[in-house]
Design brief:
9 helices; 19% strand; 7-stranded mixed β-sheet; 42% helix
Length: 341
């Protein structure tokens, strides 16, 4: 999906099973939805999944779209990832899904530009360095057709808490939370800033901006020069969630995600420490030890059942602007009004 120096998790059978388990958990957290309810199923034919892993999200989307549009519906489903290690062995036959190896911090081949009706992003922030986040989003945005949808889900470690908030539970997550607060803004703010500040190269957009009468070129999706309009921003919380699956599995999911991230991060730091100068090496080894101790503390806190773990997830849907002359029919009245103003 992204640079191998930023992605911290392993790529083995155990991790593939964890990813599938995580997917089912997130679908339950989203009240059984794979696509956001606001995205019209009848008009979706081409879908991309970034950082697709095993492709389980795309398989579920294929099933849902064929249920809405008929089993004979022709779908263009593409899963992108930086590594092929977790792709299904029979991926060319699985629900018509095509798997493509690509690093999203690099521009996509032209064949994928303006191709997809929906692009799915999930846990992008933790798979990328901060420096690469905007560039990755810009690259992804170029694959979306005008009027298409991006849906993006993230869970922020800052929004993880334990009940009751006893010291042992608080100590288990506070170091990561403090790092998150110091390193960046809250997750929803980070996501919104990234979406509303794309720097994509698109001829139709360039012409739109250079228009002598830009207001005449606007549409009912974009009331300014924004290339994206956020149509939905939701917080999904495991706390008091009505799904029995969420309540039964939230501790296990939290333990798996946190410990996998921390343990893999520690291993990556120790590996990097072998390739740097002594001064930097000591810092990496100390950080790796801290991550390992933290993973052990979280596991002990969970195993000892000292608290129940909860987390908030952010789910954003944004639509790419439709630029004249690509305006959809239902926008004609508004375009005429703007042209006469």
């Amino acid at each position: 999906m992204a640079s191998t120096t930023a992605y911290m998790l392993k790529r083995d059978e155990a991790e593939s099973k964890r990813l599938d388990f995580q997917h089912e958990f997130m679908r339950a957290l989203c009240h059984g939805n794979t696509l956001h309810p606001s995205i019209p199923r009848h008009s979706i034919r081409a879908v991309a999944d970034m950082g697709t892993g095993t492709g389980i999200w795309l398989s579920d989307v294929a099933e849902e779209l064929r249920r809405h549009n008929g089993t004979g519906a022709t779908l263009d489903l593409v899963g992108f990832d930086i590594s092929a290690k977790q792709f299904l062995e029979n991926h060319d036959k699985a629900f018509g899904v095509a798997f493509v190896v690509h690093d999203i911090t690099k521009p996509f081949p032209e064949q994928y530009h303006s191709r997809f009706d929906v692009v799915n992003l999930r846990f992008l922030v933790y798979a990328l360095s901060e420096a690469h986040l905007q560039q990755a989003f810009d690259n992804v945005a170029e694959t979306l057709r005008p009027g298409g949808y991006i849906q993006w889900q993230e869970i922020d470690i800052i929004d993880v808490w334990a009940t009751p908030a006893i010291k042992a539970a608080r100590d288990a997550v506070s170091p990561i939370q403090e790092d998150g607060v110091h390193q960046r803004c809250s997750m929803p703010t980070q996501m919104v800033k990234t979406i509303l500040n794309p720097r994509i190269q698109d001829a139709s957009v360039d012409n739109h901006f250079k228009s002598t009468n830009p207001h005449a070129s606007l549409n009912a999706i974009s009331f300014s020069h924004d290339l994206f309009r956020i149509s939905s921003l939701e917080t999904l919380s495991t706390y008091h969630h009505p799904s029995p699956k969420i309540q039964a599995e939230k501790d296990a999911v939290g333990l798996a995600i946190n410990c996998q991230l921390l343990s893999s991060g520690a291993a990556r730091m120790r590996e990097q420490s072998q390739r740097v100068e002594e001064e930097e090496r000591d810092g990496l080894i100390a950080a790796a030890k801290r991550y390992e101790e933290l993973a052990a503390a979280i596991k002990k806190a969970t195993d000892d059942k000292i608290a129940k773990w909860d987390a908030d997830a952010t789910w954003i849907v944004a639509r790419r602007a439709v630029v004249v002359p690509q305006t959809e029919d239902w926008m004609g009245a508004r375009r005429a009004n703007l042209s006469n103003s």
